[in-house]
Design a protein that fits this description.
By secondary structure, the protein is of the alpha/beta class. It is built from eleven helices and 13 strands. The mean pLDDT is 93.
Length: 347
């Protein structure tokens, strides 16, 4: 078994804003593992200023991983600190074992018989830009909208959400919001009380990660169910995992394999959630279609019925043509559509 890697820059079709800043490009790394006959491809995509991995150190670590692939394919403990690399190795090996066709988990999804319900993601920007995105998602048939909030003033964001709710009831459109830790504890509580008037389904990470006591109080007092995302990054110790579930006890875990320990790490969080009556869903973390495909195939295996955050494949100008396709509010895998990976596999 041999391995090598390649860095790739994804270009956003338009600047995509969050409370942590604006994305125009995205660095990802692909790991190729070959047995001499077939080659499996996995994607390693840490998010700057969010992942516990430093993008600046990725190439050096991947060089070591590729030189010692027999060792790293056993998933030693040190890979805990490199969750996106763990995810890349996991998915490259799954791809390799299934013939190197990006078919990791054959199912009704990969046969094109069933789609995965997804939310429509609204990026931050000017009120007009956000309105335009909202209208496009509703026109395309989405029944669950997720809006990034916390970068522009709360009143403007509230008015946008209120406008949706005035037109569509909670039965017609589910509204999720993601604050990416933008609020202080006091501000969060005030904002949550107001958002509850709009029958918001949930809010992700209202305050910055690491404030477990404050977050536990918020989860207890909030009229809007709270989901944890950033809070789960870098937590691997079973005692700490259990502490988050028992002491903070959020309504939801929002899981990203590239951030939360790969597929195996997310499966730990799912088991914990199920044991403690906590809901959960999966989202991609701005991977290319290679990473998104792996996450989608694995997500389908989890038999979840709620909307997932897997609609990011259309964000880039230079993504790879794949069988993935969004129709209405579902992500489908179209077996008749071929992968086109020449730009990646040829120098």
């Amino acid at each position: 078994m041999k391995a090598h890697f390649k860095k790739y820059i994804l270009n956003f079709k338009q600047a995509s804003g969050t409370s942590r800043g604006v994305y125009t490009t995205r660095e990802v790394w692909f790991i190729f593992i070959t047995d001499g006959t077939n080659t499996g491809i996995g994607e390693c995509a840490p998010l700057p200023n969010l992942s516990i991995e430093s993008p600046r150190k990725m190439s050096a670590k991947l060089l070591q991983v590729c030189e010692e692939i027999a060792y790293f394919s056993q998933f030693p403990d040190e890979l805990q600190n490199w969750p996106s690399i763990r995810f890349g190795i996991e998915t490259a090996l799954l791809d390799l074992r299934n013939g190197g066709q990006q078919l990791l988990f054959p199912s009704a999804f990969t046969r094109g018989e069933a789609g995965i319900p997804i939310n429509g993601l609204i990026w931050m920007g000017t009120p007009d830009f956000m309105k335009q995105q909202i209208r496009a998602k509703l026109d395309n048939g989405f029944h669950c909208i997720k809006m990034k909030i916390g970068a522009i003033d709360f009143e403007t964001e509230y008015d946008l959400l209120k406008a949706i709710r005035e037109e569509f009831s909670a039965e017609e459109i589910t509204l999720r919001v993601d604050a990416n830790g933008a609020y202080s504890y006091q501000t969060a509580l005030e904002n949550l009380k107001r958002l509850s008037d709009l029958q918001i389904h949930s809010i992700e990470q209202p305050i910055e990660a690491g404030q477990w006591e404050e977050m536990a109080k918020l989860c207890e007092k909030s009229p809007v169910p709270i989901g944890l995302d950033e809070e789960l990054i870098g937590v691997f110790n079973q005692k700490e995992l259990t502490k988050i579930a028992e002491q903070i006890h959020p309504a939801y875990f929002i899981l990203k394999p590239s951030l939360h320990g790969g597929l195996a790490g997310c499966e730990k969080w799912i088991e914990l959630a199920n044991n403690h009556g906590i809901g959960w869903w999966i989202t991609s973390a701005l991977e290319s279609n290679i990473g998104l495909n792996a996450i989608a195939q694995w997500t389908f295996q989890q038999n979840t019925k709620t909307e997932q955050g897997l609609g990011t494949g259309q964000l880039f100008t230079n993504n790879f043509d794949s069988p993935l396709q969004i129709e209405g509010d579902k992500l489908w895998y179209k077996p008749t559509r071929e992968w086109r990976l020449k730009s990646l596999t040829h120098e």
